[in-house]
Amino acid sequence: MIPLRDIIPSRTTPVVTICLIALNSIVFLYQISLGRAVDAFTLYYGLIPAAFSWMNVFTSMFLHGSVLHVAGNMLYLWIFGDNVEDRMGHGRFLVFYLLCGIAAALAQTITTPDSTVPMIGASGAIAGVMGAYFVLYPRSRIVTLIPLFFFFQVIEVPAIFFLGIWFLMQFVSGLGSIVSRVGNGGTGGAIGGIAFWAHIAGFVAGITGVALFRRPERQRVEWWHDV
Questions:
Q1: pLDDT tens-digit profile of 67-113?
Q2: Which residue, 16, 21, 164, 171, is the most exposed by fewest CB within 10 angstroms?
């Protein structure tokens, strides 16, 4: 399923969401410009669980490994970020985003402490935004592109279903990664792939933390009509 947009318009300009998308895009363009030096750049600024660094927790959130990686993350951030920023306000949303990214990075470090592969990407923080959307807008719908063999169908999927399926996929894949690691002896330095537990932790952080960041005066009934 490929999300295209949601059905709830922003009531305010999502300044922070736009700035985060711009910053991630600029950093990725800089990565491309480095050519062969990009690997050294990623090693220096990516988060390596086996050599944990608080500075790299933050810098790793703005690095991406490919065009599809950054494009997919920014699409999700744009679809879900503007409405969450609406409900939190700009400053609170930025803090919330970064805290979810931290929770995601810590979770992935705990689950793969021996990994020497740099973890990069904004997906953990964005998962937190998705978790907040799950709580704040459960009755919303996501306009979604569904590939059906050689055809494509665009349908509206309930947000609670779309995000629930996404989280379930991450959780099952996360369990699979642990089983695979245990099957290989539970150790090993080069542990790469998708950081499923970062996604899971970010989403859970978003669900549990949204109550602390949403502004009471921006309750749903005042900001948008039920759909």
A1: 999 999 999 999 999 999 999 999 999 999 999 999 999 999 998 89
A2: 164
Task: Report pTM.
Answer: 0.89
Instruction: Count structural domains, the chain.
Output: 1
Answer whether residue 51 shows pLDDT above 60. yes
Give the end-to-end CA distance of the chain in Å, rounded to a whole number: 22
Per DSSP, the chain holds a count of helices (H) and strands (E) of: 9, 3
Whether residue 61 contacts residue 28, with contact meaning beta carbons closer than 8 Å, is answered with no
Q: Tell me what pLDDT residue 73 has.
A: 97
* Residues 205 and 99 sit within 8 Å (Cβ to Cβ): yes
Report H helices in the chain: 15-33, 38-45, 54-59, 67-88, 90-111, 123-136, 159-183, 196-213, 220-223
Structure tokens at 32: 């491309």
Q: What is the domain range of residue 138?
A: 2-223
